[in-house]
Design brief:
The chain is of the alpha/beta class. It has a seven-stranded parallel β-sheet, sandwiched between helices. Strand 2, helix 2 and strand 3 form a beta-alpha-beta unit. Helix 2 runs antiparallel to helix 10 and helix 4 runs parallel beside helix 6. The radius of gyration is 17 Å and the shape is globular. The chain starts with a strand and ends in a 5-residue tail after the last helix. The relative contact order is 0.18.
Length: 208
């Protein structure tokens, strides 16, 4: 079973990492792929380069304490990074049992995603808690998506696609925006991102 977790990772931090570790204890993934986007569909610009953001995920995946793999397929593909294209590529390599992992903040706009219906039919989806986001999505998303939400984990795992599972992980009030602001103001975000990532940031003079 392969987990797929994408994002800007500008930089990657404990708010990304710790929920994934909790999730892995519950679902026992073979690997979780960390996939930095090349260019977000929202066209939001990143502060660090694509290579630096990939290298920071690589620092995390080199740890012996997790089963993460850094994956640069969206950067190599170039252009706008659409999850549909990425998941299709990954399924061709790893086979059928692929789970897309997204945050609740992202899930709120899932019906705006490129080919979102095809994504649901292609894989199962796990939604992580995010601070300040209510996980009652009934007023935010169309019924066709809400009807895919399943509460029984065993039933969820018995199917290879078509279901959405809300995972009740701990919430960590950390954001890349806060970290970048701290670094810009000459403060050290020691408790927010791993020391190895912060060392990379300092070495490469990012977010000054």
């Amino acid at each position: 079973m392969i987990g797929v977790f994408g994002g800007s990772f500008d930089p990657i931090h404990f708010g990304h990492i710790k929920p994934l570790i909790e999730l892995n204890k519950e679902f026992n993934f073979n690997n979780i792929l960390l996939i930095p986007c090349n260019l977000s569909p929202s066209l939001k610009k990143t502060n660090a380069s694509a290579i630096d953001r990939f290298e920071m995920t690589k620092v995390i995946s080199q740890s012996n304490t997790n089963n993460f793999l850094s994956d640069d397929r969206e950067i190599k593909r170039g252009g706008i990074s659409y999850s549909y294209d990425t998941l299709r590529d990954i399924k061709n390599i790893y086979g059928q049992n692929i789970l897309l992992i997204i945050g609740a903040d992202v899930f709120l706009n899932f019906d705006k995603w490129y080919n979102y219906n095809k994504i649901i039919n292609m894989v199962n989806i796990i939604v992580l808690n995010r601070p300040k986001y209510n996980t009652d999505f009934n007023n935010s998303l169309p019924k066709e998506i809400i009807d895919k939400i399943i509460t029984n984990k065993d039933d969820f795992l018995n199917e290879k696609s078509g279901y959405i599972y809300l995972f009740n992980n701990s919430e960590y009030n950390i954001s890349s925006t806060i970290i970048r602001s701290m670094i810009k103001n000459k403060k050290e975000p020691i408790s927010m991102t791993p020391g190895s990532v912060y060392s990379y940031i300092k070495r490469n003079k990012l977010y000054k």
